[in-house]
Amino acid sequence: MKEHTIKLAILKTLSTGDFISGEELGEQLGVSRAAISKHIKGIQDWGIDIFRVQGKGYQLSQPLQLLDESILKASLNAPVELIPIIDSTNQYLLDRVNELESGSVCIAEYQAKGRGRRGREWVSPFGSNLYMSMFWRLDAGMAAAMGLSLVVGVAIVEALEKLGLNGVKLKWPNDLYYQDRKLAGILVEMSGQAGGAANLVIGMGMNLMMSEQTEGITQPWASLAEVADKEHIDRNQLAITMINTLNNALNDYEIYGMSGFVERWNRLDNFLGRPIKLIMGPREITGIAKGINEQGAVLLETENGVESFIGGEISLRGTES
Ligand code: ATP
Ligand code: BTN
Predict the structure, then answer these.
(1) Where does biotin bind (predicted)?
(2) Is residue 177 in contact with ligand 2, taking CB distance under 6 Å?
């Protein structure tokens, strides 16, 4: 982690969006100008757009609002760790489930190996998005994990609504969509059972102000900056509201199960009443989306009537457009 200290200090200085020369940065941090130039290259590899103007120095293409562990800790009841540079916040918690209290959170500025469902990559450039994971010990065990993952999506959209950010929808099982493009992804992973309880790690990556030039994403995506004015997105506040809302929703789910959540999920369904197709390996089924049921299955109106489908290997796609 130490190797990143200088890079993070450079970013903190540059985060205001002002110019600063290599010489000044070197003096501040007690390293040579050549070392600064090397660190700047490393920072660019994290997906940050920094440029240099002769005679003026370095500048970020847009100011950065960095996450602040003391602000997060002050407003959260659950233990939280900010680890700016990490492989994957999900993996970090999975490696520590035996030491963690249920509700513990890990949050990062950059993931070198961010992952999505089915081993796909989650593109995670530094500072522009949110990457966080929560450990949850689910007393009801594995059988309740499917419902839990739907509850997570509802909680995150409702957290945005609390902040006045409207128009974000859900795609079954738990992606967040804005104007038919992917805004955030949720990945729930399990690390064994303890007694009857399931040890789950719930990860969420949400795009906030990701650069249009970002490479490596294979489908249309959206950023929260389209929903809200960029200047009004406070990353620390957003993380706090999401974590607290998620914690409350998970506690409610443990007590009441899916009742109540089905209607809340259906209200937010991106495809409700629209033609969709479900892809299950080589099989494709088309029909009209009818929301979900109490088991968390997706409902599809086909020529055989309303049918329910459940399982981790199903992909849902809109057929319009
Ligand atoms: P499904 O599981 O229903 O097929 P999906 O197509 O969204 O849904 P996932 O495996 O859930 O697929 O998510 C991974 C997808 O997300 C990949 O297509 C990947 O390119 C894309 N992706 C990766 N990083 C980001 C990001 N930061 N923002 C939006 N999408 C991303
Ligand atoms: C998906 O849509 O496929 C799920 C994406 C989940 C991404 C988040 S970012 C924080 C956490 N750490 C990871 O490595 N993945 C999840």
Answers:
(1) 88-90, 111, 115-117, 182
(2) no
